[in-house]
Design brief:
alpha/beta; Rossmann fold; four-stranded parallel sheet; 12% strand
């Protein structure tokens, strides 16, 4: 069965729309998606880069979505564990999961600029088939 949903990228900037207006829009769109019978609403976490300005905490925003919807699945498109303490991350996930369906996705890599914020270096992701054949 094909799942249908919306993926909300926090690509809005202050010169285009205020943060308050953006958050109100996300909640309104999520309620509409829920009432229209879509299967999921998905948020991503990124800092700096080409997008990510208005959603440094997708779990907080998804908790607000959960409070205003009744049946839609909640998902993270990318949640960057390097930016979160494991205990706090687990606690925040419990706020979202409650009675709602929730899918937690962690990306295999992050943007170099985000990695540098944590003092690390981003590594190029090498597909498993290349790693196993020694070509990566």
């Amino acid at each position: 069965m094909t799942r249908r949903g919306i993926s909300l990228l926090p690509d809005c900037r202050p010169e285009r729309r205020s943060a308050t207006a953006y958050y109100h829009d996300v909640l309104a769109i999520s309620r509409l998606a829920d009432s229209a019978g879509l299967d999921y609403v998905k948020m991503t976490e990124h800092y700096l880069g080409s997008y990510g300005g208005y959603c440094p905490s997708p779990l907080t925003l998804l908790a607000a979505v959960a409070a205003q919807t009744s049946r839609i699945r909640l998902m993270t498109a990318a949640l960057l564990p390097a930016f979160h303490h494991p205990v706090q991350l687990a606690a925040h996930i419990t706020y979202v999961t409650g009675d709602w369906l929730f899918m937690f996705l962690v990306p295999p890599v992050t943007y170099a600029v985000e990695s540098a914020l944590r003092g690390g270096r981003a590594r190029r992701w090498v597909p498993r088939r290349e790693r196993s054949s020694g070509h990566g």
